[in-house]
Design brief:
The protein is of the alpha/beta class. The chain has one domain: Rossmann fold, CATH 3.40.50. The protein has three helices and eleven strands, in the order E-E-H-E-H-E-E-E-E-H-E-E-E-E. The chain is globular and about 50 Å long. About 30% of the residues are buried. It binds 1-O-pyrophosphono-5-O-phosphono-alpha-D-ribofuranose (PRP) and hypoxanthine (HPA). The site of 1-O-pyrophosphono-5-O-phosphono-alpha-D-ribofuranose (PRP) has 18 residues, from strand 7 and helix 3. Its EC number is 2.4.2.8. This is Hypoxanthine phosphoribosyltransferase. Its cofactor is Mg(2+).
Amino acid sequence: MKEVIVINDKQFELLIEQEVIENEIKRVAERINKELKDKRPLFIAVLNGAFMFAGELMKQVNILSEITFVRLASYHGTTSTNDVKTVLGLNESIKGRSVVIVEDIVDSGNTMVSLLEELGKYEPEEIRIATLLYKPAAMKQKLNLDYVALEIPNDFIVGYGLDYNGYGRNLKDIYKVV
Ligand SMILES: O=P(O)(O)OC[C@H]1O[C@H](OP(=O)(O)OP(=O)(O)O)[C@H](O)[C@@H]1O
Ligand code: HPA
């Protein structure tokens, strides 16, 4: 029987194990190492959800690069909304730079579209997207996702940085709602 965990009113079952997740992150990092070798990229990780992905990714990135963390808020409970807020905490200048957005998940794509719009205002040379998870069936936007570690079905998930009402971010595997 599959392991089931309970967070508040919901039950979750194992979807993807840590080993699989981290192999896919390694694969993404290897591509970044090749493709951005001489670009001195600035990774911009989006808190809170991306903290675990960003940590693992950066252990595997071996090119000269920087990382910074920003915050936005847009998602409550288990449904996506369009109410994306502004980018907080970006102190670095990104003008003329190669930027890689580091996200835990692209679900409807609404957050990513707002983020691209916001960051685009500061005239970076290029913006690439690295996301741990992508739900193709939930996508409402046209987006070019440069680096996707894992494609997942359209289920609500927790773990590896992702939460249900604030809980579950610390789980080392990814779980889906039952
Ligand atoms: O593609 P979308 O439907 O827009 O959903 C994706 C966004 O939702 C989550 O953020 P959330 O606002 O939950 O913040 P968190 O990272 O602090 O959990 C996630 O980290 C993405 O930023
Ligand atoms: O499936 C999800 N789980 C947790 N947070 C999320 N933010 C967007 N989609 C999700």
